[in-house]
């Protein structure tokens, strides 16, 4: 987390100035240091240093990867970035299975780090041969894209987009951590039943990814998708609060997963980049940094509210 926060603005500027390939390759090098370094790490101090490296790698990959995707598919940038969410969900589902299999079969845990390291080596070879598009959209393509009626303002559209990112990150934390506790306390669910709400939440997010990946390609603008999803998540949260029951909690978790975790964060990046197309990496870094701050602040706030009985 520290490595990510201290580096993300820096990489946003570097990505816009020197190009996406350079920043993504920096990320890959940092990831390789982590994945191959941790299994051979002799002490905790060096492990902390490698953890900072992987945080820096995360920042570099975000500020290089998201803009590169949007530039590769300028007519369907929303669909492109929302598929990142699908891959993240796949990794979150598959990797714990891999680790569990190794633990149950007494396989050296280091393979859980070496396997991703090997994948990054293959990715590096692919990147070295790949051609990256220009950071500026071709004029013929730009004419086919929706045009702004007026120039977006930093204090209005910019601040609104950043606050949207903060809300998206906050929702992830609140649902994953507090939804099961809420279901047990107010809906009378057992711990095992309450934990299933997170499974429904994850299912909703995956369903949303594939539906909106198709819709965003031709039918729906990212900004309207975010308006719809935000309204749906807010209404659902209100229903869960007013009418807690096992059915409402399970169905509500699915709907909030669909509306607030199915790529809404990635679409926020896409929308902000539409507002400020000449600084895609820089706005991505600001958006992600504020989300990181939310991940730090929201646990403190919710923990305090819980302690005082709210």
Describe how the helices and strands are arranged.
Layout: H1 2-18, H2 20-37, H3 44-72, H4 77-104, H5 111-129, H6 139-142, H7 154-186, H8 191-218, H9 222-242, H10 246-260, H11 264-275, H12 280-307
Helix pairs in contact: 1-2, 1-3, 1-12, 2-3, 2-5, 3-4, 3-12, 4-8, 4-11, 7-8, 7-10, 7-11, 7-12, 8-10, 9-10, 9-11, 11-12
- Got a strand count? 0
Q: Gap between N and C termini, in Å?
A: 28 Å
Q: Estimate what percentage of residues fall within beta strands.
A: under 5%
Number of helices: 12
Keywords: Cell membrane, Membrane, Transmembrane, Transmembrane helix, Transport
Family: Belongs to the major facilitator superfamily.
Membrane topology: Multi-pass membrane protein
Protein name: MFS transporter
Explain briefly what this protein structure is.
By secondary structure, the chain is an all-alpha fold.
